[in-house]
Amino acid sequence: MPTLDDLKAKNAAWSRAKTAVDPDFFTRLERQQSPEYLWIGCSDSRVPANEIVGLDPGELFVHRNVANLAPPQDANYLSVLQFAVDVLKVKHVMVVGHYGCGGVAASVDGVRRGLVDHWLHPIREVYEAHRTELEALPAGRQRTDRLCELNVERQVRNVAADIFVQDAWARGQQLSVHGWVYSLHNGRITDLGVTIDGPEGYAALVARDA
Ligand code: CO
Q1: CB 201 within 8 A of CB 169
Q2: CB 87 within 8 A of CB 116
Q3: How many angstroms does the Cα of residue 103 sit away from the middle of ligand 1?
Q4: Dihedral over Cα of 115, 179, 158, 40: its sign
Q5: Catalytic residue set
Q6: What is the CA(58)–ligand 1 centre distance, in A?
Q7: pLDDT values of the chain reduced to their tens digit, one per residue, 210 residues
Q8: Of 162, 180, 189, 202, which is most buried, counting CB atoms within 10 Å of its CB?
């Protein structure tokens, strides 16, 4: 297990390596960031946003929480979303779940853990909405992984429904919301094909789920 001194030494080496290939790297980033992407992902340590998609500092705006939720009453998520859309003007928001998500599994296992059970409540609602499909799958990994996908779809819908996003589209701003799932098994991302890039797409999704 690395010590804190190890981490500081690694940081110094990383900083030196960055400036060795690009001497202006930090001075340029210090002036401004202009990321084109907002990543909404799980806090899980095995899903490090920038590393997975090979992006440098400055290229990815990141919001992470347990089970990659986009709850419409969460001030933290909403502040990140508004800043990303209104100020940074990101072109893509990706909600990124991951198979084997402990948060998703914990939402429906019936074990009481405290505050996090309330945080995970929206996933229980997703489960209820898709109970027939989910319970047709074998209990365990297969069912939980499908719930991970359905949760991502639901959070994509939440992001697309948000007034910051709706207003951006009304202004003619280019903005797409995507649903991805990451595999801990092989490190690969799967695009769930639920991209919404305007009010028509959102309306179609609402009609489909009605
Ligand atoms: Co997770």
Answers
A1: no
A2: no
A3: 5
A4: positive
A5: 42, 44, 46, 98, 101
A6: 24
A7: 899 999 999 999 999 999 999 999 999 999 888 999 999 999 999 999 999 999 999 999 999 999 999 999 999 999 999 999 999 999 999 999 999 999 999 999 999 999 999 999 999 999 999 999 999 999 999 999 999 999 999 999 999 999 999 999 999 999 999 999 999 999 999 999 999 999 999 998 888 877
A8: 180
Ligand 1 geometric centre to CA of 24 (Å): 36
DSSP 139-200: TTHHHHHHHHHHHHHHHHHHHHHSHHHHHHHHTT---EEEEEEE-TTT--EEE-S--B-SHH
Query: Does residue 98 sit in helix, strand or coil?
Result: strand
**Ligand 1 centre from 148 Cα, in Å?**
9
31 exposure class (CB count in 10 Å sphere: 0-12, 13-18, 19+): exposed
Domains along the sequence of the chain with CATH? 37-209 (3.40.1050.10)
Instruction: Count CB-CB contacts under 10 A for residue 106.
Output: 19
Three-state DSSP at 61 gives: strand
DSSP 138: P
